[in-house]
Design goal:
By secondary structure, the protein is an alpha+beta fold. Helices cover 52% and strands 22% of the residues. It has 4 domains: 7-68, no CATH class; 72-172, Tetrahydropterin Synthase, Chain A (2-Layer Sandwich), CATH 3.30.479.30; 174-233; 253-285, no CATH class. It is a single-pass membrane protein. Belongs to the band 7/mec-2 family.
């Protein structure tokens, strides 16, 4: 009987010790992963930050809070925002952040993940409300950087570092989409007209240069004439054309007389000639001058005859 009693006591003590160790050991030893940190509170006061690896605590006295140091994501729900130019859009975003100071993340804010989420939503609405629609669509990187800086500035006291913020989707009203499509179409038409006008301007400039070259070298015009004839002859349609020599038009140019009385062909406009020049006289002016001289001489001779006749009568 005594042996049985001793065995029962032994079993009882073993069970008590096992239960005690089962309760105490998990409270005494903790294993932290590489990306985890343990914020230790001893009797309610901050003691230190431990980890990673095996850490030893005082059971029932030390309490810990685990903090994940990996990059976390926040999906900012779609927000209805009125831009600076009074356009209603629906925008959602995603925020990437991580904890850099586990002590501040636990002590300075109650729930750092929820607090960062609400801060990201309010900052998104505030920043996009100060931007115009064109800026929101064209300068997305600038807006993302501005939102990141504002959130990072507010969460610095919480021991949180905002890695990046990305505006993910911008939903426009259907009326605005149609207006933007019409604007883009008109812009393409304007560019096409500008390009066409530039082409016409360049073509005109080249034609002016070609005219100056042909003026300096008249043979080039004859070559161009022959080339045009060759192009017309290569076509399948039938054309009838009469080639005229290039010097045919020279017969219609006005002729002038030099100081020696020889005729010469004038290459200038007769209207530009100085008609008072005594060395150059046109045919028409010569005829007029000859007629006027003969008329004047006739008048003078007639007058002298009348005078002579009158004198004879007086005698």
């Amino acid at each position: 009987m005594q042996t049985l009693f001793n065995l029962t006591d032994l079993i009882t003590w073993v069970v008590v010790i096992v239960i005690f160790l089962g309760i105490v050991l998990p409270q005494m030893f903790k294993i932290m992963r590489e990306y985890e940190r343990a914020v230790v509170f001893r009797l309610g006061k901050f003691y230190m930050t431990k980890g990673p690896g095996l850490i030893i605590l005082i059971p029932f006295i030390d309490k810990i809070e685990r903090v994940d140091l990996r990059v976390l994501t926040i999906n900012v729900d779609k927000q209805e925002i009125i831009t600076k130019d009074n356009v209603t859009v629906h925008v959602d975003a995603i925020t990437f952040f991580r904890v850099v100071d586990a002590e501040k993340a636990i002590i300075n804010v109650e729930q750092y993940h929820a607090a960062t989420t609400w801060l990201a939503q309010t900052t998104l609405r505030s920043v996009l409300g100060q931007a115009e629609l064109d800026e929101l669509l064209a300068e997305r990187d600038k807006i993302n950087r501005q939102i990141q800086e504002i959130i990072d500035q507010h969460t610095d006291a919480w021991g949180i570092k905002v890695v990046t913020v990305e505006v993910r989707d911008v939903v426009l009203p259907e009326s605005m989409q149609r207006a933007m499509a019409q604007q883009a179409e008109m812009e393409r038409e304007r560019r096409a007209k500008v390009i066409n006008a530039q082409g016409e301007f360049q073509a005109a400039a080249k034609l002016v240069e070609a005219g100056k070259m042909i003026e300096q070298t008249p043979v080039a015009l004859q070559l161009r004439f022959l080339q045009t004839m060759s192009e017309i002859g290569d076509e399948s349609s039938t054309h009838t054309f009469l080639p005229i020599p290039m010097n045919f038009l020279e017969a219609f140019k006005p002729t002038i007389q030099d100081a020696s009385g020889k005729k010469a062909t004038a290459n200038v406009d007769p209207g530009d000639m100085d008609m008072d020049d005594p060395g150059i006289e046109t045919k028409s002016s010569g005829k007029k001058s000859g007629g006027s001289e003969s008329g004047q001489s006739g008048k003078k001779s007639g007058g002298s005859r009348k005078k002579s006749g009158g004198g004879s009568k007086e005698e």
